[in-house]
Amino acid sequence: MAGKFCVSLTCAGDNPDKATVGFVVANASVASDKDTMVFLSTEGVRLAVNGAADEIKEEGFAPLKELMENFIKAGGKIFVCSPCFKKRGLDESNMIAGATIVGGAKLVEFLSTDGGSPCITY
Q: Where would I find the H helices in 32-117?
């Protein structure tokens, strides 16, 4: 792959515009043959729960659920902040396919190995 790219996403239904644009950018990155990771933290972890993205449809964009599914099908990775997920009392058995619970060390590893990675935050 031609480098890496990280999208750090801190919102979900609380800011559907940012959540949607984050996955638009992530899809553009993975389509550009980048090793792409979306890191969900704070309120963004809610997107890892089945059904959370189903009703998020921002005007001018594909529905968020579709963007997320396309991202995963294209080989993108979704990492979910473990402490943020647990703090919100969310259920790991009800997570979307393709999402993985990780600690902050996984984000640091992705950003710092193999020449590093740019990261954008929404």
A: 64-73, 82-87, 104-112
Q: What's the CATH class of domain 4-121?
A: alpha beta
Residue 35 has what pLDDT? 97
Structure token digits, residue 108:
């640091």
Distances (CA, A) of 30 to 64, 72, 82: 16, 9, 24
Q: What is the CA radius of gyration of the chain?
A: 13
Tell me the backbone φ, ψ of residue 89, rounded to 5 degrees.
65, 30
Q: Which residues of the chain have pLDDT under 50?
A: 1
Helices assigned H by DSSP within 1-122:
16-31, 64-73, 82-87, 104-112
The Cα 8–Cα 121 span in angstroms is 5
pTM greater than 0.70: yes
Could you give the CA distance from residue 76 to residue 74 in angstroms, rounded to a whole number? 6
Q: List for the chain the helix, strand, coil content (%; round to 5).
A: 40, 20, 35
- Can you give the residue ranges of every domain in the chain? 4-121
